[in-house]
Amino acid sequence: MLSSIIRRFRTFPRKKGKIDVEGIMKRADASMQKKRLFLDKDLTIKQLCGEIGTNRTYLSFSLKSKGYNFYSYVNRYRTDYFYALLSDAKNRRVILIDLAEQSGFNSLKTLNRYVKNDFGMTASALRKQIYTKNLSIAFKDSGKAKTATLS
After folding, report:
1. pTM, to two decimals
2. H-helix segments, the chain
3. Nearest residue to 103 (alpha-carbon basis) of 8, 39, 45, 146
4. Could you tell me the residue range of the domain that residue 117 belongs to?
């Protein structure tokens, strides 16, 4: 009981005043898109905080309020980038691990976890679907997160 109260207390900032969650997320999104920070396999929350001018507590709180943790947030960008690479016909013969690494993933296993969450299949099965049925990946922004569909 006491430990759950302490854990809940730790998730809130200790300073008085409100956190500008929207401002922090806008700066984080802008940095991720413009500078493509997600392509760095060794990206840390500390580095992202330095880029956007906030601290770890505020960034973590902002991400959590949007339904993310740091890794799920960064891997969403990596997954979107992977889908763009996969949809490009010039990458048709490139092996998946190379596309995963170009997208910032350390392993194909992590990539497959996100692809399975989006499409219910592995990255190789998705590639096969795209090329055999001449499909493309469409993104829909639901406010909380993007969802990808085959169209």
Report:
1. 0.79
2. 2-10, 21-35, 45-52, 56-65, 70-87, 96-102, 108-119, 123-132
3. 39
4. 73-150
